[in-house]
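Hi R.,

Here's the chain you asked about this morning:
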Amino acid sequence: MTSEERISRTEAGVELKLTMPAHHLAAREGRQRVREFADSDGFPGDEVDRLEFVVGELLSNAVDHGGGNKAMDGSEAESGTAAVQMHLEFRFNRSGWELRVEDEGGGDPECLRPMLQDTGELPDLEDERGRGFFLLLGMLSSLKVESSRTGEGIALIAEVQFETPS
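And here is the predicted structure, written out as tokens:
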């Protein structure tokens, strides 16, 4: 499934990096791989479901809107988008976690920024975009967008800061 997987552990925290083809089967497998990694590496058990939901939303977004052309599996991706990949970086430590998902589908972060503002209003259910962001905003400490590191797409960065006991 993954073209590349790297794990690193330092005093600052633990990190998993995945590079995978941009189709929904790979997104599902990537979500499962992040869950397995979190379960086996000391991630707080009560955070795993939230993490898995966020991973699923961001990877699905990368497939649907970031160059994957909504491909369901590798055979569909072969028809013109075989080289398109998604990049995931997940890191956590005692204070929280960060998930970064990059796509290769072009796009302008400025066009997405308005969708990442918590206005308190329900999104338009007829609009193809924005419902997932609405759900994520209620679950995260922050959700940001910027250009991918390669400049070929968009990066969405989800962050959760754990509450510290008083």
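One quick note: The chain has one domain: 4-161.

Cheers,
M.
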